Amino acid sequence: MAGYLRISIIVLSLALIKRNSAVRWLKRLTTDEKPFTAAYALRDGNVRDYRCTAYGHVLTIIPWTIVVAIACHRESKRGRGAIACATYVFVTVFIIIAAYLAPVKTTDRMLNNPLVLPNTELTLVEMDRKSNFECTQWLPRNIYIVSTSENAGRWIQFRTNEITIREFVDAIESLSDLRHRFVHCGNGSSILFGGDCCFGLRLR
Q1: What is the 3-state secondary structure (H, E, C) of the chain?
Q2: What's residue 24's pLDDT?
Q3: Residues of the chain under the 50 pLDDT cut
């Protein structure tokens, strides 16, 4: 029995760091929002704010707590309750920290994707899909650049026309007042993979 409890604790610890259907199911029970509740939703090329409920992610810890309590109670009969509880908590914290530091984040993978530019020098308005849709076909659909009348004519120089999205973002931020932000959905976020970036990358 003790072996099964230890395995259950590890499995539940892994469930805390990775997205799974149980999280989505718990979220549906704890909110009046629609089953798919996004932090942001796209409509007509604009990003509109929506409330993001994350109660399901919190409730995922309940079965872990129950299993740990049962395991500690069993071990306390042998005089090892405190040690067992500390060990289980340490293992779970270690798994969560390792997942948080793991180099498998969705945003990093997106930033490392290649990007081919039409020229090595572009103005912000030339990269603004809303203002210049026909000339921004080269820009990935999940990248949104918002220019203003003050910075529309700002020239951005790139080292070459074949770069990564990370280099693209760094160049824009170093030569303008725009700053990047990933837009995520609460349903897809996790400690292991971070935000899912399902609504893209915005520079504004």
Answers
A1: CHHHHHHHHHHHHHHHHCCCHHHHHHHHHCCCCCCCCCCEEEECCEEEECCCCCHHHHHCHHHHHHHHHHHHHHHHCCCCHHHHHHHHHHHHHHHHHHHHHCCCCHHHHHHCCEEECCCCEEECHHHCCCCCHHHHCCCCCCEEECCCCCCCCCEEECCCCEEEHHHHHHHHHHHCCCCEEECCCCCCCECCCECCCCCCEEEC
A2: 45
A3: 1, 20-55
